[in-house]
Write a structure and sequence with these properties.
The chain has one domain: Beta Barrel (Thrombin, subunit H), CATH 2.40.10. It is about 5% helix and about 50% strand. It has 1 helix and 9 strands; from the N terminus they run ββββββαβββ. A hairpin with a 4-residue loop joins β3 and β4. The longest helix has 4 residues. The radius of gyration is 17 Å and the shape is globular.
Length: about 130
């Protein structure tokens, strides 16, 4: 590619993504956001059914959930997360209402995991 095709980047600049583990399909995961290991109660709503559980990790672009029900990839979901004030360093908890979609699911033993994107979010008003 010519330098004209590299709009906004000099030849010495580059973008770095952190690589995650290899998935079950053999693809390397690429993560663009830092993940925080937080176990917070949550209920996911798909419009047809709800699934209760807790978060395993949270990032700006998505969440990994451990749920009481198996979900299917591709489902649109809504969920709210109460972020503890101690975690945020604020004077009160912050509730975030999110819309997203399930992008990956797995089940093992008695655990159902679902990874979802956060496509839209808004902070609850106090």
């Amino acid at each position: 590619m010519s330098q004209a095709g590299m709009v906004g980047f000099s030849s010495s600049e580059s973008i770095h993504f952190s690589s995650g583990p290899v998935t079950a399909t053999g693809r390397q995961e690429v993560r663009c956001a830092v993940r925080f290991p937080l176990a917070l109660p949550v209920v996911l709503s798909t419009g047809e059914k709800d699934a209760a559980g807790e978060t395993r990790n949270v990032s700006a672009s998505g969440v990994l959930f451990a749920l009481d029900k198996a979900l299917k990839a591709g489902l649109d979901v809504r969920f709210s997360i109460r972020m503890p004030r101690e975690t945020l360093g604020s004077t009160q908890d912050v509730v975030v209402h999110c819309k997203g979609r399930v992008v990956r699911c797995s089940s093992s033993h008695d655990e159902n995991l679902a990874a979802a994107t956060i496509d839209e979010y808004r902070f609850a008003e106090h």
